[in-house]
Amino acid sequence: xxxxxxxxxxxxxxxxxxxxxxxxxxxxxxxxxxxxxxxxxxxxxxxxxxxxxxxxxxxxxxxxxxxxxxxxxxxxxxxxx
Length: 81
What we know:
- With 81 residues, the chain is mainly alpha-helical.
- The chain has one domain.
- 51% of the residues lie in helices and 10% in strands.
- It contains four helices and three strands, in the order H-E-H-H-E-E-H.
- Helix 2 (23-30) crosses helix 3.
- The longest helix has 12 residues, at 5-16.
């Protein structure tokens, strides 16, 4: 029987984070820094984000689905698309 890893990760993420998490919330969950997440986003390697306002310092949010998919890709050694 194959385990749906994305579904399991999605459940874990939903237990620990609000539905649309801030960069600060996600950094705390991942035990990293907001700066690291911002750098990964600029390089196109971080979890997909939703930009809530325009400009360089615009507010961003991360959905549970985007976080779970990114975590699964990292566990496989893949690169986020």
